[in-house]
# Entry
Amino acid sequence: MSSARARPLVVGTGIAGLWAAWRLASEGHDVLLVTKATLQDSNTAWAQGGIAVALDAADSPAQHAADTIAASDGLADPIAVEVLTREGPDRVRELLELGAVFDRDADGELRFGLEAAHSRARILHAEGDRTGAMLVAALSKVVLGNPRIEVRQHCRVRRLLRRGDRVVGAILLNDAGEPEAVAAPAVILATGGCGQLFEITTNPPVATADGWALAHSAGAVLSHLEFLQFHPTALHVPGVNPAPLLTEALRGAGAWLVDAKGERFVFDADPRGEMAPRDIVARAVAHRAYRGGAFLDARHLPNVEQAFPGVAALVAAHGLSLAHDLLPVAPAMHYAMGGIRTDLAGGSTVAGLWAVGECANTGVHGANRLASNSLLEGLVFADRAGRAVGELLAGSPKVPSFAPAPTDWDAGTDAGPIATAFRARMRSFLTREVGLVRTEPGLAEAELAIADLRRRVPSGAWHTADQLRIAAEIARAARGRRESRGGHRRADFPNPKPRITA
Ligand SMILES: Cc1cc2nc3c(=O)[nH]c(=O)nc-3n(C[C@H](O)[C@H](O)[C@H](O)COP(=O)(O)OP(=O)(O)OC[C@H]3O[C@@H](n4cnc5c(N)ncnc54)[C@H](O)[C@@H]3O)c2cc1C
# Structure
């Protein structure tokens, strides 16, 4: 039932979890790596545009850092940004050595793409727009081939175990709902995003903010949850969840956003037009989508279906053609800037608990993420967390063994109609009142509605209760920030508050 082997537990198999597990194993430690679905189910696997890194001879970490800070709307931690951009090139070189294959030009040189708010082309990509799939394939091969890493798929972390002031393990549930208590000297959460708490999202079904709920119930601090990034160009097909993403790289390559009359409209909002920061483009798209329709026009791009094969296939699945059709678009919840607050080595505010990747708030994104910085953040900070946990293990910490409590035996009643209806209401409130544009009355209504759902959630529907816990935290954070900044837009407080700097 219980295991007292002092193996660290890594939760999640996106770029951050795969890398943290590999780093620990490469330092000589045994690791248990669990993921709640398969190795193919993660935001990482779906990443299209690529990974931003200052590797080109004409680029520099300082320039990448300046762009990251500019995009963050005043809230990025400059030290975290410096770590990200300075260590990024070495991590990507290691990634190449481990088997990652990025697109190259005819001379064999790495080919860098351009995305919004980057001052130069610095996005590495694979097979055009299949970067995430390539990364997952390459890193999965690495972890599956490493005898120090035990990989368990369809294995969900249900709850973290705490002794005194430390996290000392977790309750795992397999698909049959059988619990297992594992003792661990360190738990690294790499559980990804929260998109599925919203009605329209680009995130896959596994993105239900589990890591935030696990950490919060273990007492860890969550921060900056109000800063959410809505992607401006999800294909607008009502009722389809997740919404297919039309990568920003399409606009980087010259695609236009047009209204029902065929006129480009983003210049009305920002002189950078289609290459303005995501929050500005997303609001412009939402405005037009509501008044007659907003469309992505990539028909004039040469060989567009060969350059973007993944998007071409996604679009074709809905009877549309990238080369011949105007594509209806709407903004969709895409990325969470905030999360489990960490230090520069991924350490949370609770001993024994680390967080890396999208579920963490390292400070690199501030109020708004620069496009394609998240895969790099996953690599850089997972590496740091892996090394930090490795150092902890060198001291051979003792870990107690556990047996699951009776309540942990329950696989949950979340599939029932009542829990499903509760989640639908939560998604509706978050989307309407805690979405692209927020107001005091709307946020107050959302807070009350979510509190009511939390009181009445069916007993046993613990995964729904976890999601409601986080929905309440997001609404609270959004209500508490009485200004507009980055991914947080208040109609009633339209300007940023002046920031006091030392
Ligand atoms: C469509 C799309 C396109 C994107 N394109 C780009 C891009 O081009 N460039 C870029 O930088 N970023 C992009 N992003 C964002 C980026 O993909 C993510 O921020 C990043 O991949 C997150 O990596 P991660 O390892 O933190 O989490 P994820 O890749 O989301 O992995 C989370 C893992 O945790 C597992 N998990 C969750 N809860 C539990 C639990 N309770 N128990 C066990 N396992 C659990 C999940 O199953 C999954 O394996 C994109 C995102 C999407 C959705």
